[in-house]
TrEMBL record:
GO terms for molecular function: dihydrolipoyl dehydrogenase (NADH) activity; flavin adenine dinucleotide binding. It comes from Spongiibacter pelagi. This is Dihydrolipoyl dehydrogenase. Residues 352-461 form the Pyridine nucleotide-disulphide oxidoreductase dimerisation domain. It is found in: Cytoplasm. The lineage of its organism: Bacteria, Pseudomonadati, Pseudomonadota, Gammaproteobacteria, Cellvibrionales. InterPro entries: Class-I_Pyr_Nuc-Dis_Oxidored, FAD/NAD-bd_sf, FAD/NAD-binding_dom, FAD/NAD-linked_Rdtase_dimer_sf, Lipoamide_DH, Pyr_nuc-diS_OxRdtase, Pyr_nucl-diS_OxRdtase_dimer, Pyr_OxRdtase_I_AS. Belongs to the class-I pyridine nucleotide-disulfide oxidoreductase family. The active site is at H450.
Length: 478
């Protein structure tokens, strides 16, 4: 029986970060991965690199470049006639990007001394791990510490059973070989909007069915309202309060029935994407006598340090509480590895950035105005629209705004929400300031390069105190 200081089950963002950091700290480390890629090799990187974050961004970038060439070049005086999209070539490029990055993780494992093991891991009693390989062979590892990082998978719903042909999940939506003439998307969350945007830009008529009555309820209402307006203008048909009740198929079409709150409606699509969320992949992960169990939703209970109820066993990433975000899992994986080494890092769960990679992007960190109002916290708001940004206008990309919120008394930044070009990168500036307890005045006093989109962050900070230069101020200057 092989023995390691640390055994990590799962090589997604949380798992591979934990494994690499543990090996860097001098621990003998093994990382187990059961999923196989298209080449039949371990799919290092998990959902994010193989069928999630990275491939979807590759398609988002390609589709946006096509959209710009077809519909956005003329305003710059560029004539691009007969622009077309080669969907199989686009899919191949996406696969090439994935292969390069997943291969890179294998290289990082070798460089850091991590032993990569192919197979599905299962936690046994006494911190032993059973590994079942693709050919059915079974081996058992012994560990001083075990880190569970099994990840998540798409949620399926009974009214629309998946066949990965006409009715697909987020994975299947990355493999279309042609542009659907009419595309249905169930779920107006992050995944649904991103995938809907890809195929809408390429020419699909996209209808998004969302059961919730409110659009993007997790986002600041002002930003969500702006996003809805922009996405509608782009051609996304987003229908709220629509509960899907059933579906049927022919050889080439899928019919979806739903209730819109008043009546039953039937719609026909060439393809249907089910994007209603994700759930933990904990089925088969835990032996009955291992001492660790999942709750009724499949999540493994942990404390703020990702410790389970068994000493030396940790759980990180999508299988524990908190948002199912790659970067959140990455930080948890590193934290656990360092705590095993006796260090004392923590993860600041109050500052987990969130991003929707549509165009414009939607990004936020900290509290929204609605959350602060509900909590009774006194606050001030500063907003700067990108239409007032010289850099945004020059780029013909002036949709959206920066919204910054600070404590009314202390001026400490409590939250930032941005919709606009490069919103994810701009928002991160504010996250850094918030991590160090920065105030809106601090940001307002920093010199920003001109012209740049980042000036919008400075102007929003200045607007909090009525000092914005490039827009009229709503409050009296002090």
């Amino acid at each position: 029986m092989s023995k390691y200081d640390v055994v990590v089950i799962g090589s997604g963002p949380a798992g591979y970060h934990a494994a690499i950091r543990a090996a860097q700290l001098g621990f003998s480390t093994a990382c187990i991965e059961g999923d196989l890629n298209k080449g039949g090799k371990p799919a290092f990187g998990g959902t994010c690199l193989n069928v999630g974050c990275i491939p979807s961004k590759a398609l988002l970038d390609t589709s946006f470049k096509y959209h710009e060439a077809k519909d956005g070049f003329a305003v710059h005086g560029i004539n691009a006639k007969d622009v077309s999209i080669d969907v199989p070539a686009m899919i191949k490029r996406k696969d090439d990007v994935v292969a390069q990055l997943t291969g890179g993780i294998g290289g990082l494992f070798k460089a850091n001394g991590v032993t990569a093991i192919e197979g599905y891991g299962k936690l046994l009693a006494g911190k032993k791990v059973e590994v079942t390989k693709a050919d059915g062979a079974v081996e058992t590892l012994e560990a001083t510490h075990v880190i569970l990082a099994a990840g998540s998978k798409p949620v399926e719903i009974p009214p629309t059973p998946l066949d990965q042909n006409l009715i697909v999940d987020s994975t299947g939506a990355l493999e279309f070989t042609a542009v659907p003439k009419r595309l249905g998307v169930i779920g107006a969350g992050v995944i649904g909007l991103e995938l809907g945007s890809v195929w809408s830009r390429l020419g699909s008529e996209v209808v998004v069915l969302e059961a919730m009555p409110e659009f993007l309820p997790m986002v600041d209402k002002q930003i969500g309202k702006e996003a809805a307006k922009i996405f509608k203008k782009q051609g996304l048909d987003i229908r709220l309060g629509c509960k899907v009740t059933g579906s049927s198929q022919t050889k080439t079409k899928v019919k979806v029935t739903y209730n819109d709150g008043e009546k039953d409606v039937e719609e026909a699509f060439d393809k249907l994407i089910v994007a209603v969320g994700r759930k933990p992949r904990t089925a088969g992960l835990l032996a009955d006598d291992c001492g660790v169990s999942a709750d009724e939703r499949g999540f493994i209970p942990v404390n703020d340090l990702c410790e389970t109820g068994v000493a030396g066993v940790y759980a990180v990433g999508d299988i524990v509480r908190g948002p199912m975000l790659a970067h959140k899992g990455m930080e948890e994986g590193v934290m656990v590895a360092e705590r095993i080494a006796g260090k004392k890092p923590t993860v600041n769960y109050d500052l987990v950035p969130s991003v929707i990679y549509t165009h414009p992007e939607v990004a936020w960190v900290g509290k929204s105005e609605e959350q602060l109002k509900a909590d009774g916290v006194p606050y001030e708001v500063g907003v700067f629209p990108f239409i007032a940004s010289g850099r945004a206008l020059a780029a013909n990309d002036a949709g959206g705004m920066v919204k910054m919120i600070a404590h009314a008394t202390t001026d400490r930044i409590l939250g930032c929400q941005i919709i606009g070009a490069n919103a994810a990168d701009l928002m991160q500036e504010v996250a850094i300031a918030m991590e160090f307890g920065g105030s809106a005045e601090d940001i307002g006093m920093i010199m920003f390069g001109h012209p740049s989109l980042s000036e919008g962050v400075k102007e929003a900070a200045l607007a909090l105190g009525g000092h914005a230069i490039h827009i009229p101020n709503r409050k009296k200057r002090k």
